Amino acid sequence: MSVENSIPDITVIVVTHNHEEYVDEALASISRQQTHRSVEVIIADDDSTDQTRAMAEKWLAESPLPGSLLAPSSRLGITLNYARAFAAARGRYVAVLEGDDVWTYAGKLDEQADALDRHPEASMVASRLELWFSDEGHFSVEPLIGLNGFETLLSSERIADSNWFATFSTAMYRRRALESIPPAIFETLAYDWAIAMAVTEWGPAVFLPRIATAYRIHNRGTWSRETVRARDTKIQQLIPSYIEAFDGRLSRELHRALVSVERRLLGSEASRSHDGSDTSEQAVIEQSRASTPRFPFPDDESRPPLVSVIVPSFNHGEFIERAIRSVLEQSEQDFEVIVVDDASSDDSVERVSGVSDPRLRLYRLPRNVGGAAALNFGVQQARGEYIAILNSDDMWMPSKLARQLEVIRARDVAAVFTGARYIGPDDRPLPAETLPAWGEIFRQPDRSRAQWLRYFFENGNALCHPSILIRRDAYETIGLYDNTLRQLPDFDRWIALVSHFDIAVLGDEPLVLFRLQYDNGNTSSVTPASVRRTHREHLWVAEQMLDRLPDQLLVEAFHDLLDEPTIGPGPEAIVDRAVLYLRATGPLASINREAGLRKVRNLMAEPETYLVLLTKYGIDDAFVHERAGLQELALTSDMETGLNAVDRPRVVDRALTDWSTGEIVRVLRRRLRNVPLRAWPGRVRHHLMPWSYRR
To answer: Of 158, 306, 371, 660, which is most buried, counting CB atoms within 10 Å of its CB?
Structure first.
C-alpha cells in the first residue's frame, strides 16, 4: 500500500486504551491489508497506563504507512476519543479498528471502499464479524442478516431497531457523513450504535456478508467485559438519551428497541429458531459460547484455494466426519472446506472438531436459520475460483473434483454436475428394488440451455445438488438460494443458472454417494410433509420461471407451443408467457396449468393485457370459468407414488379413523395399483373390489 497523494483515500483510526495484550495483533492486521488505495493511520490512544502507547509508536515508526499518534494528557473517555479521531481524519473514507480487535480478511479495506464507490448515496459500510470469546476460545457469527444476497442496504430506522454491527471495527464511514453528525450525539455516551444511526440519517448503510473482523470478547474490554444483563441495563439507560439526541426522529424504532431490551431483562423474550424451537436470547448466547474452539483464521496472504467446498450441516453428527473425509481424500487437493453448522443440537460440531486439517473452517451459527440460508452463508465466505457443495450426510468418490475441473476447464461452461449412487445409513449401496420411483433421475444426458429449460418446465429437477462444481462468480449473476424453499432451493437456482450459462452433466459418472433416509433425516426424506411441500414449491417456482427467461431463449425452448416464431412486444409478451403455462405437457402439467390460470386471471384485470388475451387467444371470462372447473388440483403421479411409499399403515389408520368411506374411496382408487388389496381392511376392499376388477 502506498500513498500517492497528500490527501489519502482511506484513514484508518485505531482506538486504544490499555490494549498491550492485543494491539500488536490489531496493527499487524492493518499491515496485511491488500489495497491499491492510499492509506493513513491515526492511533487515538486514550491515556493508556500500560505499554500500549509505546507499542503503537514502535509500529508507526516501522510501518511504511504514514500515520500519527493522538495521545491526550488525561483520560477522555470513549465518546470524546472517537470525536477527536474523526475530526483528525483526512481520508475520503474512514475505517475504524479498536485496539483489541482484528481484521481477518486482507481485502476488507478494498471491498468496503468499493462498496461506497458503488453506492455514492451510502454513508457507511459494515461487514459480518465473528464474536471471538478469546478468554474461552469460542466464537459466534453476527449478524445473521443479508443471507439472501451479496449486499444489503440498511436505513437509520432499520439500524435503530437493532445494533446490527456490534462494534466500530467492522465499519468504514464516508467522511462527509461523519461530518454531518449532530454535535448532540457526542454529548451522549455514543457507542457504535449511536454513530451508525447518526450517519445513516445522511444515507443508508451497506452491509457486506463476508466475515472481515474478529470482535474480541474478553474480561478487559470496555464493553465486552460486561455481562449480558449489565450490557442490557446500560442500553436501557442509554436509549432515552438517544431519543432526545435525535430529537425524536427515531423515537418509534428506539422505543421498540427499548421494549425489547426490557423484555430481555425481565427474562421473558424468546427467539424462535427456524426449526421451530423456542430459545431464550440468553440461552442462544450461552449456546454459542459453549461451542467448540474455533479453527484458525484463513491465511489471506496466501493464494486463495482453487475450490471452496461448502458443507451446510444440521444434526448430522452420525455422518459429517465421513462427508468431510471424503473431501480430504480427493485426488485434487487445492481446496478449502467451509462447514456451516446451522445450530445443531447433536454432536455435529464436536465431530467436525475431531478432523484436523488447516484447510478446514467451521462456522457455527448462533441460531437455526434454515438449510438454504446456511448454504448462502458458506457461499458468501468462499474464496475459491470454484464452489462445490456437499451435504453433510453425503460423500464423494475420490476423483470427483479432479474430473469436474478437467471438464470445466475444457469447456466453456459455468457448472459441472455428475451422477450419483444411492447409499443407506451404513454407506452401503441401496438395492435397485428399494429405490424410489425417481431413482434414476440423476442419470441425465448433456442438453443445451433451451433443452434444460424445457425439461425443467415439464419434469422438474434432475440435477444432483451435492454433485455441483460451479464458478463462484456465477452466483453473482444468478443470485443465492431462496430460503423460503425447503425442498427445491437448488431447482430454483438451476433454472436461473441455465437461463444465463451453459452447463455440463456427467450423468453416467456416479461420483456422489447420495444418502437416502426415510426418517426425515434430510430434505430428501420421503414423508407426507415433504411430498406436499414439494408440490407447493413446484407451483411457486413455476409461477416465476417463464417470466425470467429472455425472449430468444424462451422461443428456442418452447417454439412448438407458440403460435408465432417470436414473442410479441409489450403487453403481448406478458400474455404469450402466461398462455404457455396453459399449454403445458408432461408430469408437471397440472401444476403449470394451475400457475397459468392464476396468471391469466390476474392479466384479465388489466385492460391492455385483457385485450391481448381476448383478441389473440380468445380467452375471456367463460374460458377461465371452464378451465377452472376442469383443472384438477392434484399431485403429480410421481408425488402420488411418493405418498404411497410413506409409512402406509399409519396413513391408512388415520384415514380410516377420520375420513368417511366416500372420501377414502375417492383417494384410494387413484392409488390402488401400487397397493395389494389384501393390505386394506374389509370395508375398504368391499367398496373398491368391483372397481379393481374393471381395471
So the answer is: 371
Identify which has the larger pLDDT, 368 or 230.
368
Cα gap 364→129, rounded to integer Å: 13
Contact of 19 with 100, CB cutoff 8 Å: yes
**Whole-prediction pTM value?**
0.81
Tell me which fold the domain 307-525 belongs to.
Spore Coat Polysaccharide Biosynthesis Protein SpsA; Chain A (3.90.550)
H or E element, residue 600: helix 589-603
SS3 content of the chain, % helix, strand, coil (to 5): 45, 15, 40
Angle 44-46-51 from CA coordinates, rounded to 5°: 95
> 69 forms bridges with which residues in the sheet?
43
CATH value of 10-225 in 3.50.50.60, 3.10.270.10, 2.40.50.840, 3.90.550.10: 3.90.550.10
Q: Which of 428-442, 620-634, 652-666 has the lowest mean pLDDT?
A: 652-666
Cα pseudo-dihedral 673, 676, 677, 679, rounded to 10: -130
Q: What is the structure's pLDDT at 522?
A: 53
Which SS3 state, helix, strand or coil, does residue 278 take? strand
State the CB neighbour count (10 A cutoff) for residue 282.
14
Q: Which amino acid is at 666?
A: R
Task: Count the alpha carbons within 13 Å of 175 in the hemisphere toward its beta carbon.
Answer: 17
The phi, psi pair for 489, rounded to 5°, reads -65, -30
15 contacts 46 by C-beta, under 8 angstroms: yes
Please confirm whether the linkage preceding 143 is cis (ω < 30° from 0). Answer: yes
Give dist(CA 338, CA 160) in Å, integer: 33
Three-state secondary structure call for residue 411: coil
Pairing of strands 386-389, 469-471: antiparallel
- What's the mean pLDDT in 576-593? 94
